[in-house]
Amino acid sequence: MAAVTARTSVGWPLPDGLDDAQLKARLFAKAEPPPSASRPLLDWPTVQRSCGDRA
């Protein structure tokens, strides 16, 4: 429960005036996608050569 509270900023008891739509927006907010530049693309031919017949 603590992990959900930290991620959603919703505690118990619920804040006064928080309606169903606001609660739903907090609980089911879309996560931000990770930036693609932070992970380099793999060089698949090199990976295949290094694996050999192990795959």
Oligomerization category of the chains in this entry: single chain
The number of helical runs is: 3
Q: In which range does the helix fraction lie?
A: 40-55%
- What's the helix-strand series? HHH
Strand content: under 5%
Tell me the layout of helices and strands.
Layout: H1 2-8, H2 20-27, H3 44-51
Question: Can you give me a brief rundown of this structure?
Answer:
The protein is an all-alpha fold and 55 residues long.
Which key terms come to mind for this protein?
about 55 residues, mainly alpha, 3 helices
Task: Provide an overview of this structure.
The protein has about 55 residues and is mainly α. The protein has a domain at about 1-30. Helices cover about 40% and strands about 0% of the residues. The chain contains 3 helices and no strands. The protein has helices at about 1-10, 20-25, 45-50. The chain starts with a helix and ends with a helix.
